[in-house]
Amino acid sequence: MFRTLYAKCEPCEMEDFENNSMIQLSLVYNKNRRLIIHESKDLNEIRTTAGQLASSFNLKIRDSATDRRNPKWLSNEEIGV
């Protein structure tokens, strides 16, 4: 899970990053390539979708959206699996 700003927000201040950004759920492959699966402003919606993917495909979920400077791996209980 990643938090991102779009090009239309380039002039935005950094505090806008936390308040007006979108959250992306992405599959990461080859260490740094991302395939965006879902986007939303609702963190709970992203966590629910992440939980469904984790359960279906036996994936680990890393949360970089909550604290981008300190990402963490989520346990199954935290994502509702």
Concise overview:
With 81 residues, the chain is of the alpha+beta class. The protein is 32% helix and 31% strand. The mean pLDDT is 78.
What would you note in describing this structure?
The protein has helices spanning 14-20, 43-57, 76-79; strands at residues 2-4, 22-29, 33-40, 61-63, 72-74. It is of the alpha+beta class and 81 residues long. A hairpin with an 8-residue loop joins strand 4 (61-63) and strand 5 (72-74). It is globular. The chain starts with a strand and ends with a helix.
Protein topology:
Elements (H helix, E strand, L loop, with lengths): L1 E3 L9 H7 L1 E8 L3 E8 L2 H15 L3 E3 L8 E3 L1 H4 L2
β-strand number? 5
Question: What portion of residues belong to β-strands?
Answer: 25-35%
Helix vs. strand class: alpha+beta
What general outline do the C-alpha atoms trace?
A: globular
Question: What order do the SSEs take from the amino end to the carboxyl end, as H and E?
Answer: EHEEHEEH
Runs with pLDDT <50, length 5+?
none
